[in-house]
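ok new one. same drill as before - structure tokens go in, u give me an amino acid for every spot. 204 of them this time. try not to just spam alanines like last time pls lmao
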């Protein structure tokens, strides 16, 4: 019995397909699935238990009688290639009757690239958020702290000529120098913080 004809729709699909009988045995497959599992010939799969490639999928879902369903919608599924490589997949299970016999069409999609992309996106989002926080802090330092320290330094300088005590003048002058040094330190920090948003633009 020929279960599935060798059509372009079957072989050119980006998803891997398995046709499995009620005993969980593979009856047919397509090229995408062979490539996904590093299998050179379809004959190597025919007669093999589907559970060998997709452990626990059929045991968990059995054979639905009348509706399609997606295995792993709320749980992770792991597939195992011929070389023993384990990778994440999503598997859609669709019951199919052929000449009165019940079969299962299993559409398998490799999630490796998708999960890696989601991870990269999450990391990029974290870097962007950190850069935005750095820019916000830099703006706050410049607009508030530096400006207030600068005004304080000017006030102290204006008081110096009004003080006759030499010791007090020296101490006041030292205080002005301390304020100036603090301003320079904060401005250097602002420069470092402001460089973060520039690198974040590369993520766009």
């Amino acid at each position: 019995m020929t279960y599935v004809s060798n059509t372009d729709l079957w072989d050119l699909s980006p998803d891997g397909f398995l046709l499995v009988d009620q005993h969980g045995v593979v009856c047919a497959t397509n090229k995408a699935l062979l490539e996904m599992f590093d299998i050179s010939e379809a004959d190597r799969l025919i007669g093999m238990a589907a559970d060998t490639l997709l452990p626990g999928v059929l045991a968990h879902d059995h054979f639905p009688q009348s509706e399609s369903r997606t295995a792993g919608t709320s749980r992770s599924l792991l597939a195992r290639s011929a070389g023993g490589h384990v990778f994440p997949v999503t598997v859609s299970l669709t019951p199919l009757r052929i000449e009165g016999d019940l079969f299962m069409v299993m559409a398998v999609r490799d999630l490796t690239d998708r999960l890696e992309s989601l991870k990269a996106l999450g990391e990029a989002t974290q870097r962007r958020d950190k850069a935005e926080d750095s820019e916000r802090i830099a703006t706050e330092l410049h607009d508030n702290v530096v400006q207030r320290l600068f005004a304080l330094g000017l006030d102290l300088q204006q008081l110096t000529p009004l003080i006759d005590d030499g010791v007090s003048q020296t101490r006041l002058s030292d205080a002005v120098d301390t304020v100036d040094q603090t301003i320079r330190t904060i401005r250097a920090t602002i420069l470092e913080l402001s460089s973060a948003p520039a690198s974040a633009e590369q993520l766009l």
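The chain has a mean pLDDT of 77. and btw The CA atoms of residues 78 and 88 lie 5 Å apart.
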